[in-house]
């Protein structure tokens, strides 16, 4: 089992390795569609024959460049993403034939306007609530518009069979990722939270889905075999932490490290980096467009009001993963998650009777000491 770390590294390095792969795919004539959010219906892009790749940047490397055009008090994810785009430091953006965004927040909406000056951008108008027939019709129409856009841009005809095939493939991937996440239910978990994060984060940069699914299943078998051999990576006394809130990235690994170096272990990620999207499958028995509309409209994001789906998922995860505490990660200037934190705190502490803390941060590393102190005190209290 000495090769286990190498397997984890393969997933964590998949974004970097993807730079070469994406160029090779372009050289082979493949179309590339850049995306920014889990609301993007991956199945439609895949059914067009194109490759979907995430453009969300989570590093402070280009924020200074972005702040020449964007406000300093803007979400770091938006500034980082825009900075990588205008500096040509993101090969994924550079090779994208089309950019797809959704109106999840006002900051992103304005960023898409700027991006449209340098790239072909298609914006999906997301309803502000997932409730009611009008919201369903609006989002279904937006998915149909995306389908028509892809067909027109790439000169293809996306059939119902193409979409159904993509749905089956993506559902298989979701199931595999959920099986991997379920390792955190074990006591103690056979992997650390940082290892889990690297796999979940790197999976989106693997485009051969069949190969990826096989790799995930092998990884699960290897991890369980190593645990059964008597090796324990995580102390049985480690406090079990659920992370929720904004998407995590390389720059926010500081929070995971603070948890796991101070007596805790992250057993589950509820946020976009984790199982927020994968926890719900697309219904393969329904009309494929209706099924996709229903699935994506019910992602528990704070841009939705009310956001009962987030509470529902957190409730299930607290029970299934036997969580000792919940940590809510909020990026600076992410107003929807920041405002929602009060409701999440009340729900977690009063209805689930589990301790809660929120951490507001950005992509700089200047607050590492403060985060360590706060997290250490929280875990000691547990």
Automatic annotation (TrEMBL):
Belongs to the FldB/FldC dehydratase alpha/beta subunit family. It comes from Clostridium lapidicellarium. Transmembrane segments: none annotated. The keyword Iron applies. NCBIfam families: double_cubane (NF040772). Its cofactor is [4Fe-4S] cluster. Pfam families: HGD-D. It comes from the Bacteria. Keywords: Iron, Iron-sulfur, Metal-binding. This is Double-cubane-cluster-containing anaerobic reductase.
